Each structure stands twice: as structure tokens, then as C-alpha cells.
Amino acid sequence: MKLLALDTSTEACSVALLNGNELLTLDEVCPQQHSKRVLPMVQQLLTDSGLSLAQLDGLVFGKGPGSFTGVRIGVGVAQGLAFGADLPVYGVSTLAAMAQAAYRQLQASQVLAAIDARMAEIYFGHYQLDANGLMQLQGQEQAVKPDQLAPLDSGKDFTAVGTGWQTYAEVLQQWQSAKSSDILYPSAQDMLPQARQAWDAGHFVAAEQAEPSYVRDTVSWQKLPGR
Q: Which SUPFAM superfamilies has this protein been placed in (predicted)?
């Protein structure tokens, strides 16, 4: 199986290439530079692997949630590459990717993923490891004010991932028992386990069907006086 994954939904820009049992990855924290960096990173991995885009089986992209602009860049780049090489695509949640990283790095089985969503909110998801080693969403991903989150079972051993835990540390004290981690951003390599299962299940779609997941679909702006 040959899959290329990319994500630009947060401050990080990430690309991963799976070629059979070989995995190549590039991760950079480069705020507002994604549109300049992602294609050179893709080309570097293709060159290092000796593959062309047309030799791949499919493309995987981070579908969000995250920065509106970043999510759009990732979806757009994935669509453009897929159209050019006639490849199917599959989108993976950025929250799920961070949860998967917690399993890969820390063997975590219960993960609370929170990305700073600005506007005093976080993108939040609770994930649990299944029997196949994949993180599965419990309930729904949501854009929510941290102090409005419903309490979870305090008896479980949670691991916290994402920038939301740093930005709103005081508000999220209700989960002081959650183990902190160094996982702040999604990495494309952690989208591949879910993508492989999706490939086996026939869930990849044509490029024109690639859709983002903003979670927060509408943003209300308060007009300034006299505007």
C-alpha cells in the first residue's frame, strides 16, 4: 500500500508517506507558511521514496477541525494533487490523529484532545482505543467553551493532547487527573492507521468529494459601533 498523508490544519505542517512497511515523515511548526511549505515537503518525500505521485494508491488529508484557512489549504492541496494523478482521497480528523499519536507514543487508551479554537473556545473530542489499536470518537467532536464541557468519568485514566490544554489550563482544572503530554499538534503519520482501515473498507472517495470538518461552521462577528 502506498499512501501520502498531509495536514495543515494547525500551526504545524505535516506530511507522511507510507510505502509498504516504509514510513517517511516531515513535520514543521510554521505558522502562516503552510501554503509555501506543504508542496515542497510532499515533493521531498516522493523524491526520497523514489515514487511519483501517480504510483500512489491514495491521498489522506487532515480534514479539521483547526484553523479555517489551514483546513482549506490542506483540503485544496489534497484535491489538486488527487485530480492531477487521478487518485482517491480520505479525510481524517485532526483530533483523532492527536489521539492516535498518544497511543503510538504513550500507549494511551483514553484521550482528551483539545485544540485552541480562538474566540474563547476549544475543539474537543474524547477518544478511546479499540481492539484494533485505533482511536474511536466517544460522542461528538465539538466547539465549546472550556467551562461548558460536560464532566467525564473521573475514574478513567485520561491523557491530554493538544494546544487547548495549555491555553485554558486553569479552566480545564476539572481534569487535573488527566496526564499531560507533549503532543500539541496533529501529525500526518498518525492519520495513516485510520486511513489504512478506511482503504480496506472501501471508504476512499473521488477528489471532488473531499470535505472539510470545521466543527464550528458559523462565526458571528459583533459589529463595531458606527460600522
A: Actin-like ATPase domain
* CA angle, residues 156, 161, 163, in degrees to nearest 5: 140
For residue 219, give every residue at least 6 positions away whose Cβ sits within 8 Å of its Cβ, in sequence order, or none.
119
Domain 94-175: which CATH number of 3.30.1360.30, 3.30.1330.50, 3.40.50.1980, 3.30.420.40: 3.30.420.40
Rg of the chain over Cα atoms, rounded to whole angstroms, equals 18
pTM above 0.90, yes or no: yes
pLDDT (tens digit, 9 = 90+) per residue, 66-107? 999 999 999 999 999 999 999 999 999 999 999 999 999 999
The residues, ordered by sequence, that sit 6+ positions from 42 with a Cβ below 8 Å of its Cβ are 4, 6, 15, 77, 81
